[in-house]
Amino acid sequence: QKEVEQDPGPLSVPEGAIVSLNCTYSNSAFQYFMWYRQYSRKGPELLMYTYSSGNKEDGRFTAQVDKSSKYISLFIRDSQPSDSATYLCAMTDAGNMLTFGGGTRLMVKP
Amino acid sequence: GAGVSQSPSNKVTEKGKDVELRCDPISGHTALYWYRQSLGQGLEFLIYFQGNSAPDKSGLPSDRFSAERTGGSVSTLTIQRTQQEDSAVYLCASSLYPSPLHFGNGTRLTVT
């Protein structure tokens, strides 16, 4: 079993839909959580960075962490075709090493 | 520039040749990471530098792979006697602990 599980998709939604992307993990020591967006032929770009449990909002994006369930989510409101990309979750304890999910490919259709 | 810079962006090489991939991290970032991403796959950790030291080399796939970092800045990943299975995108990232990683756009390596 992988330390971080993420559905690879692809997830296809119509423009304007609310998108929910999720990761589950097994290591209870993880306390820093990140979401990266990766466009084709580009490097991963940091979207959201949260510490411990709770919600964080940035524009159309909301990151949610539930440490009791070992479950994190990224919500995208009013999705746009430009949101079409692969979304990677990542997490770490207090150390320098990140553990990544395998990524979910999202397609937003006009 | 403000971001992580990698060169070359694309590299095509013949099987058996050596290649060098370069990474210029964000200025002041003490930690530097190399990852490999094969087509449609997730990120595979290769090596991590703190300053010029590499406390974790556990991800290097074989002794054909080596990396160094000089002056706490630029890093070079070298692959000797390349094989077709080495074809992938090689990503570099840097960070200033405990901030998250910032990635470059990678070097796309094709071994023919």
Structural summary, described in words:
The complex is a heterodimer of chains A (110) and B (112). By secondary structure, chain A is mainly beta. Chain A contains no helices and eleven strands. Chain A has strands spanning 4-5, 11-14, 19-25, 32-38, 45-51, 54-58, 61-66, 71-76, 85-92, 99-100, 104-109. In chain A, the strands form two sheets. In chain A, strands 2, 4, 5, 9, 10 and 11 form a six-stranded mixed beta sheet that branches. In chain A, strands 1-3-8-7-6 form a five-stranded antiparallel beta sheet, with no helix packed on it. Chain A is globular and about 40 Å long. The termini of chain A are far apart. The model of chain A has no long low-confidence stretch (mean pLDDT 94). Chain B is mainly β. Chain A binds chain B through residues 32, 34, 36, 41-46, 49, 88, 90, 94, 96-98, 100-103, and chain B through 4, 31, 41-43, 45, 48, 50, 56, 91, 93, 95, 97-106, 108.
Seen as an oligomer or otherwise, the chain set is heterodimer
Which term fits the overall shape of chain A? globular
**Total beta strand runs of chain B:** 11
Strand content of chain A: over 45%
Distance between the termini of chain A: 37 Å
Task: Give the structural class of chain A.
Answer: mainly beta
Q: Average pLDDT value of chain B?
A: 93
H/E element string of chain A?
EEEEEEEEEEE
Please mark out the parts of chain B with pLDDT under 50 across 5 or more consecutive residues, or reply none.
none
Structural class of chain B: mainly beta
The helix content of chain A is under 10%
Radius of gyration over C-alpha positions of chain B, nearest whole angstrom: 13 Å
- Secondary structure tally: strands of chain A: 11
Reported for the largest beta sheet of chain A, the result is: 6 strands, mixed
Number of helices of chain A: 0
Number of helices of chain B: 0
Straight-line distance between termini of chain B = 33 Å
Beta fraction of the residues of chain B? over 45%
Estimated helix fraction of chain B: under 10%
Shape of chain B: globular
